[in-house]
Amino acid sequence: MKHWWKILSVLLLYYTIFAGLLVDVPHLPILHETIRNLYFHVTMWFSMIILFAISVVNSIKYLSKFNLRNDLVASEAAKVGMLFGINGLITGMLWAKFTWGAYWVNDTKLNGAAATMLVYTAYFLLRNSVEDEHKRAKLSSVYSIFAFAMMFVFIMVLPRLTDSLHPGNGGNPGFGNYDLDNKMRIVFYPAVIGWTLLGVWIMQVRTRITLLEEKTF
Amino acid sequence: MAKPNLISYSIAKLKFFVNLAIFLNINLKFKLQTLNLNLKPLLKQIIALIKKETLLEWRLKYSFSGILIYVISTIFICYLSFKQIIDPPTWNALFWIILLFAAVNAVAKSFMQESHGLQLFYYTLVNPQHVILAKIIYNMMLLLAVSCISFLFYIIFMGNMVQDLGMFFLGLLLGAAGLSSVLTLVSAIAAKTNNSSSLMAILSFPILLPLLMTIIKFSKNAMDGLSWSVNYPNLIILLAINLLVITLAYLLFPYLWRE
Prior knowledge:
The complex is a heterodimer of chains A (about 220) and B (about 260). Chain A has 7 helices and no strands.
């Protein structure tokens, strides 16, 4: 049974959807029932960060061994991470509309998320503008490592030093403190694992398709 | 009973400290010697490379004067279109945006003007990591000169709103260092591609954002004449970003010059 994690992913996501929409949640002012979005919005960002980390690790691996397969995995992980990032943005915008009253507010955490999308768009543009495979792999690996470090500063360090509406920053407590009670935790953590496994699954399938295409053409 | 014990104890303690001091002294001397041996060729090569860059710039005066005219005409356009800026945040943001575009244009040529064969020739002569350090330091000096001159023209046209000039110039220095280190590495990447000039801006803007936002906050505090203690967190972030970027450029550049 080497495919157990795919079955686990599907089961966990079913659990996330049903338990996330049906299980009782704490009734907080302003948030009300939108707190259920926690299972779909925050988990997207968790999976995105993990997928981008996979991408960077593969870029570093490429630079140490010069194996093109690592570069392929890095680019596919970045693509799937981008998909999760866009989903995270959309769910976050809907949530912001219901709680803060606008789809977009000028906030460090939100701007960091938008800048992350820009960085990875630039990464794909760089990949498309180089013809030679090894040259493309080298340039994009270097850019990806460099960009990941700067992105880390932008979304992990800077928001913690400034005021922000977003929970977990600038004096606002994170969900870990009191919003996220034990009842929510038993849905939240399985949801993170489920979405991440789904992302890795998509990445694996895409890598295989690209490898097959390269073999046939 | 207690007294002799105490004395012997203190003598033992003294001996320990003397020994420690001797050991540390020897160790320090040894370390300095080894460091000196490693540092000398590095400094020599870097200084030679910076001299070469400066000489090239001096002989091709049109590139530096081109950047200056670019900045001055941008400031003049802003002066004509804004007429007058009353709001300090706008003044500050406009200044840094002008500098950002000038910096992208100034640094973009650092790897593009040299032919592939010439670069290969350099890399056989010197350590490629020294090339990137020398280019970063040279570009930093260039950007510092450009930013000082553009600041002068900016206050002539837009009026001076800065209350703490010392802190503002420290911001200019840190900004020039950060811009030059990020842009030098990005220009090394962009120079290898087909549409280098447009990629330069696309690749560098998103990763310059954290630096730019911190530097804008830093110089805004300098404009308001706030005390230095308010600006320490920003100063530390700027120094940390500079250190991070220079380290990454130093580590990653060897993978870029080879093809």
